[in-house]
Structure formats: C-alpha cells, structure tokens
Amino acid sequence: EQGLQLLELGGSVEEDYIRIARCFEATRQRCCRLEQDGRRAREQLARVEAERAALEVKLKHARNQVEVEMKKRHRAEAELEKQERKLQLVLELLMREPWGNEALSREQCSVLSALAGRRLGAALAPVRRSSAMDESCQSLLSHSDISYDRTEDDV
C-alpha cells in the first residue's frame, strides 16, 4: 500500500523522498528483527539438538544396562531353579532311604516331610516371589514386557 501511495506523487518531491526513506528504514528494521529472531532460533535449535543427542546416549546406556540386568536375572533364576531341584532330590532321597528314617529323629522326619511337600509343590509350579511387591516388580522387569526400538541405536 505504501508503495502505491508513493507512486502517486501527490505532494512535493522532497516529501515523497522522505516517505520512501521512512519506508525503507521500516523495512530494514523489520529485516534486522527477523535476522535476530532467526539467529536466536538457530541457537535454540542447536541447544535442543545437543540435549537430544545427550538424551539418546543416556537412553542407549539405559537400554544396555536393562539388557545386562535381565541377563543377570535370568542366570540367577536358572541357578535358583537348579538349587531347588537339588534340594528336592536330597529331601526325597532322605525321605525314601531306610537308613535316612533311622538316622533322623521323628521331629526331623516330620520337618523334612513338610519341607519336601512344600518344595515339591514349588518345584512343579512356576517360580513364585515372596511378596506382592516382588511380583509386581517381576512383571515390570519381565523381558517380554519390555519393548524398545533398536533402530535408532545406530544414530
């Protein structure tokens, strides 16, 4: 609009030149503000990208740590099952052997019978946790429940 008004040259030439100069100055100031805004936006983008890269590194480390801990957990659970099977076999051996009943007192036999019955049930059932909190942690830490995308690990 200002450009069209300037072309109409309705007043003196000096006034027209002053209006043109003011219009150029306003445009120059607008360009300077836009350039500053662009510079600030680029700086903010650089900061955000650096933060994102740092977070990606942390995420990669966390994923690796989860994987290591899951492997440790699986090894510990396998060892626990192995030890429970060994204990079950020893208890069954003690209960079935004739010399075992003679060498043990009645109280020891009843304790072993109760323990053998409880262990047999535990050996047949899946591994149980001792508390509700452990069960909830088990479900939270189950490797089948954890899913993450490894496609971005190479970034």
Describe the structure.
The longest helix has 84 residues, at 13-96. Mean pLDDT is 76; it is low at 120-141. The chain has a domain at 7-94. The protein is rod-shaped, with a radius of gyration of 39 Å. 81% of the residues lie in helices and 0% in strands. It has helices spanning 2-7, 13-96, 98-103, 106-124, 132-141. It has 155 residues and is mostly helical. The protein contains five helices and no strands. 0% of the residues are buried. The two termini are 51 Å apart.
Helix-strand layout with pairing:
Elements: H1 2-7, H2 13-96, H3 98-103, H4 106-124, H5 132-141
* Arithmetic mean pLDDT: 76
* SSE pattern, N- to C-terminal: HHHHH
Q: Number of DSSP strands?
A: 0
N- and C-termini, Cα separation: 51 Å
Shape: rod-shaped
Task: Please name the defining characteristics of this protein.
single chain, 155 residues, mainly alpha, 81% helix, coiled coil, RGAP1 protein
